[in-house]
Amino acid sequence: MKEKKTLDIKTVCECNRCLGNKTLHPQASLINLENPGLKGDAVQFEFYAILLIEECPDGCNCCGRKYYDYSNATMVFLTPGEIFRMNKNNTLPPKGWLLAFHPDLLFRTSLKNHIRNYTFFNYRKEEALHLSGRETGTVTCCLEHIEEELHHPIDIHTSTILSRHIELLLDYCTRFYERQFITRENRNKTIVKKLDRMLDEYIESGRLQNGLLPSSEYCAEGLNLSTAYFTDLLKFETGKTLTEYFQLKRLDTAKRLLLKGDSTPAVVAHRLGYPNVQHFSLIFKRITGIAPNEYRYSKN
């Protein structure tokens, strides 16, 4: 069996050499992917990489595109050190663009302080962004501005201007991902329903009695999503974090349990993993406006 090989590209200059591109700036490059010619089953970029995929040999199934998504182009976002493989036959897409920029480019720029807020860099390849024709035009325009600045002689303004163009591109991608959450509304509601079943089963399992609350990682794994994508999807669909969402689900369960004759507030608090009955009563009253005992007897 052929041994799998990952090509580790450490610098932007090395990336340009591997892909036959001229180096205009040692920390940033925009590369046409029509003739990638990489010798490796996968590639590891030791810098930020943004792929605009204009053509996918699998019809983009490998990037998670479904019938309810746009199909004009696809974008994938990679953090430094992340390993990427297009599919079993291709290391990189046969047509598209690669925007590569080293974290050092962002030194002393505003983007350095909040690039982590662009959570889609932590999505899986299968959670890629699928663009409409209009959106592709916007992204292409941003890349053209970056290309224009790369051809300008390097001066003290270069890093700032490049980072601002990159930041604008990322802001547009944030907008387009939010649009994608909207066009995937039915699919996302199905995911939230599956999450509800997972959380109900978690509560019924008794694990809360040991003080173990379900984590975002646990839920994401059960839903076959990355933690970042799961967190963003839940926030978009419900307006809540997992902690907030689960607290309300625990309270709904507490209400049902309190209506059972032998379920005192202390029993419910223990079963649902609250540290003590006082803490449970405080949260219950703050959210419902009534103490657990009052609720218990008001419904009888």
- As a whole number of angstroms, the C-alpha radius of gyration is 24 Å
- The number of distinct helices, counting runs of at least 4 residues, comes to 11
Describe the strand arrangement of the main beta sheet, using strand numbers.
2-7-4-5-8
Which stretches of 5+ consecutive residues score pLDDT under 50? Answer: none
Mean pLDDT: 93
The general outline is elongated
Topology order in helix (H) and strand (E) letters: EHEEEEEEHEHHHHHHHHH
**Portion of residues in helices?**
40-55%
Q: How would you characterize the largest beta sheet?
A: 5 strands, antiparallel
Number of domains: 2
Quaternary state reads single chain
Beta percentage is: 5-15%
Number of beta strands: 8
First CA to last CA: what distance? 70 Å
